[in-house]
């Protein structure tokens, strides 16, 4: 995803060379707890937008979540190539649905 790579590079630049007024620099300055809080908030907003019918709102919320996940990736030293490799590995799995367990009607 080229745009995710571009976003990641901007985030890493703000991390390496923060400037006043940068929201990204602010998140890094506040630290991991703040970044994680924002990821959680944005995930909840995606859930709410997903229940509604406004596609533009859902798109915006997904973008917000991806941005904050990208900040988390940079904070933890994960680059998009690492994530892409894991996604490719997972895509190779066939029949990866977890088996369901039969319930015991007598228990």
Question: According to CATH, what is the class?
Answer: Mainly Alpha
Q: What would you say the CATH architecture is?
A: Orthogonal Bundle
**Count of DSSP strands:** 0
Beta-strand share of residues:
under 5%
Structural class: mainly alpha
Unreliable stretches? none
Overall structural domain count = 1
Order of helices and strands: HHHHH
- Assign the CATH superfamily: MazG-like
Q: What is the 3D shape?
A: extended
Helix content: over 70%
Mean pLDDT: 92
Count every helix, treating DSSP H or I runs of 4 or more residues as helices.
5
**Using only CA atoms, what is the Rg?**
18 Å
Distance N terminus to C terminus? 49 Å
CATH topology: Helix Hairpins
SSE layout:
Blueprint: H1 2-16, H2 23-30, H3 32-51, H4 55-76, H5 80-91
What does this structure look like?
The chain has 107 residues and is an all-alpha fold. It has a single domain (2-80), classed as Helix Hairpins. The protein contains 5 helices and no strands. The protein has helices spanning 2-16, 23-30, 32-51, 55-76, 80-91. The chain is extended, with a radius of gyration of 18 Å. The relative contact order is 0.12.
């Amino acid at each position: 995803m080229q745009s995710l790579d571009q976003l990641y590079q901007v985030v890493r630049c703000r991390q390496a060379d923060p400037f006043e007024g940068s929201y990204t620099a602010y998140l890094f300055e506040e630290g991991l707890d703040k970044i994680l809080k924002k990821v959680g908030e944005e995930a909840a907003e995606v859930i709410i937008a997903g229940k509604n019918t406004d596609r533009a709102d859902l798109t915006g919320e997904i973008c917000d979540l991806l941005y904050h996940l990208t900040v988390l990736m940079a904070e933890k030293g994960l680059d998009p190539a690492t994530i892409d490799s894991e996604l490719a590995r997972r895509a190779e799995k066939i029949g990866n649905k977890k088996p369901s367990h039969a319930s015991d009607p007598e228990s």
